Amino acid sequence: MSKRIDVSDLNVYYSKFRAVEDVNIKIDAKSVTAFIGPSGCGKSTFLRTLNRMHEVIPGATVEGKVLLDGDNLYDAGVDPVTVRSQIGMVFQRPNPFPTMSIRDNVLAGVKLNARRIGKSDADDLVESSLRGANLWNEVKDRLDKPGSGLSGGQQQRLCIARTIAVKPQVILMDEPCSALDPISTLAIEDLINEMKNDYTVVIVTHNMQQAARVSDKTAFFNIAGTGKPGKLIEFDETATIFNNPSVKATEDYVSGRFG
Amino acid sequence: MTTNALTKPGGSGRTGDKVFSTASMAAGILILVTLFAVALFLFLQAIPAFTADPAEVSGGKGFLSYIWPIVIGTVIAAAIAIVLATPVGLGVALFISHYAPRRLAAPLGYVIDLLAAIPSVIYGIWGYLVLAPVLVPGYEWLNANLGFIPLFGGPVSQTGKTMLTAGIVLAVMVLPIITSLSREIFLQTPGLHEEAALALGATRWEMIRMSVLPFARAGIISAVMLGLGRALGETMAVALVLSTGNLIPSLIKSGNQTIAAEIALNFPEAFGLRMSELIAAGLVLFIITLAVNMVARWIISRHQEFSGAN
Ligand SMILES: Nc1ncnc2c1ncn2[C@@H]1O[C@H](COP(=O)(O)OP(=O)(O)OP(=O)(O)O)[C@@H](O)[C@H]1O
Ligand SMILES: [Mg+2]
Questions:
Q1: Of the candidates A58, A101, A113, which has its C-beta nearest B102's C-beta?
Q2: Which one of B207, B209, B302, B306 makes the best mutation probe of the A interface by having the most chain A beta carbons within 10 Å?
């Protein structure tokens, strides 16, 4: 139950400003793909087009195709709500719902669209999702406490649990560790490694070691200058990108000789 | 002799802090003193009404039986106003903050804010001249179809100057308060939480229920309570719109009275004991509003742990 993503000729706009230009990329099912590149090159923007979160911003538009196992997310009849329930997202800053308990946070997505779930099914789902996010042991005694009372790293894992509870096909993560300490970061990286058994994972990161540690393939994005659109420069096996890239800019970036 | 390098000579850098904290402390105390002085004044002036021979109080049966019908009237008028204005106000606020296209949202919000600037006399005149006559056929219909409910008992007032009309005018008056306050709060919902809901596959309404409304709950309660405070204390509109009388269950017959309107209508000619009665009525209104505010605080604080603040 994980799907592949094929992007063709994707252009992304904020009103008139083209933030991302002509991206073509094939993201395999059950793999971890990392997006790297300098700040402002459009990684987040591009990532958000993969589950139609981009259009939430007023004036934001997308041209081109994003196929989820062959079905275009941007076809006329497609409801973004359906898209987002199949392609989950974890954000840079942990954002559990502050007014909900830990348990309700995990179930938040499951209870949407008027779906009903019995008490014992719900309990099982809460436990399996929290275990899946490596958080169960830390919170099992306080499931009824607010999610906002957890540490940053725990909150982020709660957000991951909330995302996997709806059993999506794909999980998008935008710098999920950038607000976390090294220990929590490692916990999440371990988690990502396990997650690829079940999900297609796409992660944006500024941390090269992280990209090297967790991803199978890496995409390098770059920008020609301020006001110019970001482009996909190179996309290959992670080992190739880091050790033997074919584009000079990639080599400069991954070796830290950038700019 | 050792000197601590961290102690500043003179400490002059703190002067600003000191001035500010003294000033804000003074302001706080001033408010408390004013509040207390008002309460004390009301209480002292009201004593004769409590101690007078029951036969001499208006109505001839003592202060309690004088006051309770108008307390009930006050509460009913305010309740009608809040029941009508809260859903409409929250709906309009949500529409402006989360549904309306931007080009529409800003002017609409502006118009609502303007409504709040209309003086209450104007609302009173409008209610008296325009709204009351228009409502009469509606009241006839209510009486004909739901007349078995005491609330809609006949005979219907032919001028339309009834409790329900007063309640509706009050609702229109508190609507901008509820709308503009809750709109401000809805707009402050962190984008983070809205996106969290949307990314899980929430529809817009589900997103509002998951992130906007919980975040805004304390603010909504305050907005409604502020509206309630205004409705309870509102004088001119009720004085103009309501054709007063004894306490009756029907909302569409002439009758009933509110404290604020009772005071406003009778104060100019009042002296002696009558004056004390009216001041005592004012004291009762003061206590009711205070209680409303305290209940609101309590409701808000009960949910602190789960509030959006942490
Ligand atoms: N809401 C927005 N409205 C208008 N322009 C935006 C918006 N968000 C981002 N941009 C612009 O789009 C471009 C790409 O931004 P984006 O956030 O995708 O970069 P990024 O690669 O994720 O950067 P970072 O690594 O710093 O997160 C930037 O030029 C940015 O200024
Ligand atoms: Mg980004």
A1: A58
A2: B306
Note whether A88 contacts B199, CB cutoff 8 Å. yes
- For chain B, 310 residues long, give each residue's pLDDT as a single digit of tens: 566 777 766 555 678 888 898 999 999 999 999 989 988 998 999 898 888 888 888 887 888 888 888 899 999 999 999 999 999 999 999 999 999 888 888 898 888 888 888 888 999 999 999 999 999 999 889 888 888 888 887 788 888 888 999 999 999 999 998 998 899 889 988 889 999 999 999 999 999 999 999 889 888 988 898 899 889 888 888 888 888 788 888 888 888 888 888 888 888 888 888 899 999 999 999 999 888 888 877 877 776 655 554 4
Q: State ipTM.
A: 0.90
One CATH from 3.40.50.700, 3.40.50.10260, 3.30.420.40, 1.10.3720.10 for B16-306: 1.10.3720.10
* CATH number of A5-99+169-254, picked from 3.40.50.261, 3.40.190.10, 3.40.1390.10, 3.40.50.300: 3.40.50.300
Distances (CA, A) of A234 to A208, A244, A246, B101: 15, 12, 8, 39
What are the sequence ranges of the domains in chain B?
A: 16-306
Q: Cβ(A99)–Cβ(A146) under 8 Å? A: yes
Q: Which of B142, B123, B229 is nearest to B181 (CA)?
A: B229
pTM: 0.82
Largest CA distance in chain A: 57
